[in-house]
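Thread: quick sanity check before group meeting

JM: Hey all, I'm pulling together slides for Thursday and realized we never actually wrote out the predicted structure for the chain we discussed last week. Dropping the sequence here so it's in one place. If anyone has concerns about the input, flag it before I start.
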Amino acid sequence: MRVKSRHHLRSDEIGAIEDAVASQLGVDLDGDSYEFVELRDSAFDVVLVDGQPLVFYVDDEPFLTVRGANEHPPDRRVVTVDSGAVSFVSNGADVMRPGIVEADDAIEAGDLVAIAEEAHGKVLAIGRSLEDGSDLVGDAGKVVESVHHVGDDLYGFGV
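JM (edit): ok, ran it. Output follows.
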C-alpha cells in the first residue's frame, strides 16, 4: 500500500471521528495525535491514532480497523462467530449465518460491524451486515460481507 498524502487532522475533524466511533461502537479513542493517510492503491483511507492505523474510512464512514477494534474492544455492533468460522473469516470470507453464535440486536442492515471470535473475543474482521442483528443468527445464508480482515494489506499497513 502506497501513501498518496498524509496530514494531521484539525480538532473538529478529530471530534467527528471520536464522536462517530463512540456512537457506533461505544469506544472512547482519546488519542494525542491523529493523522489522515490517503492511500494510492486502496479503497480505504486510514487515520493513524498515536501512530497506529486504528481507524479507516469505508464509504466516507469512519470505523475501527481490526487493530483498532482489538486495541479498543467495541461494546456495540459486534457479531460473534464460533470456532469453526475463525479460519474462514480470518482469510476474508463473508460470514454465513450458521457460524454466528451472537449478534448485537441493534445492528441494522447496512451497518459496519466488528466480527469477533467466541473463545477470546478477538476481532478477526470488519464487515457490512446484510441483515438486521436480530436476523443474523440462524441456519443458512450469507449475512455479513467482509470488508477488512486479519492479514490483508490494510492490516499490515504501518507494521
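AS: nice. The chain has two domains: 3-70, 78-155. The chain is about 20% helix and 35% strand.
JM: adding both to the slides.
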